[in-house]
Amino acid sequence: MGIVFMVLYFFIVAFVIEISVILFNLTGLEEEVSRYQVVSMLTNTGFTTDEAQLIIDHPVRRRLSMFLILFGAFSLAVIISSITNILSSDLRLKELMIINLVLLVLLMTGKTPIIRKKLKTKLNSEMEKKLEISELPIKDALYLEEDDLVTDIVIEEDSPFIDAKAKDIIGKEEDISILFIKRGKVSIRHKLYDETLHEGDQLFIYGNKQAIEKKFS
Q: Which residues pair with 183 in a beta bridge?
């Protein structure tokens, strides 16, 4: 009976992982990244700095991560306790089976396109209600269209843009905007398009991905 209890509880953990992956994915996080982060939070093993920022900067993901960290700590206590009571008859297998069935239904429901669409709309609206645009992650604030891109371009020593003004590089009709120019430790924002570019300058730009790739290929 003890082995059955352990198996049922591990099924609960697996269902929680998959449901959490779906929820993270609906907030815009890639599925593989979502799964890695969920497992990391459940096991309290930590996660990489760059990807951690994707969680911390997003209000919905942040709440999900708090639940997963607490659930992971609780699960560890349950597993240790179940091993201690492996010979006990009071393992509540019926309750565990019911929990598994409920989580399975939630998981299958979360995979249906209609529910995913509704959940995605709900999660996005929750984020928009709670945050000013200045608090949103760059992707959520600026990636308004599927082909939008924020990136940086470094002016190399053989670049044709050296000694050219920013306004001569990017025409008014092009779907590209310069956010700022980083020169060493200085960030240039004032009269940006009148600035003459030098070797080593770093241009932070925003616009259509295809237009950016064509211009700076």
A: 186
Q: Closest Cα partner for 203 from 185, 177, 173?
A: 177
Q: How far apart are CA 150 and CA 139, in angstroms?
A: 8
The residue among 11, 6, 3 whose CA lies nearest residue 104 is: 11
How many CA atoms within 13 Å lie on the side-chain side of 89? 0
Distance, CA of 174 to CA of 197 (rounded, Å): 19
The fraction of the chain above a pLDDT of 90, given in percent, is 0
Q: Residue 172 in contact with residue 196, Cβ under 8 Å?
A: no
What is the tens place of the pLDDT at every residue in 1-19?
A: 566 777 777 888 888 888 8
pLDDT over 50 (residue 87): no
User: 83, 91 in Cβ contact below 8 A?
Assistant: no
Q: What DSSP element (H or E) covers 204?
A: strand 202-208
- The CA dihedral of 103, 109, 111, 113, to the nearest 10 degrees, is -170
Dist. CA 128–CA 153, nearest whole Å: 30
Buried b (16+ CB within 10 A) or exposed e, 77-90: eeeeeeeeeeeeee
Token pair, residue 18, equals 């998959």
Length of the chain: 217
Specify the residue for token string 């000013």.
132
pLDDT, tens digit (0-9, with 9 covering 90-100), for 184-197: 888 888 888 888 88
Which tokens hold the place of 174?
């092009």
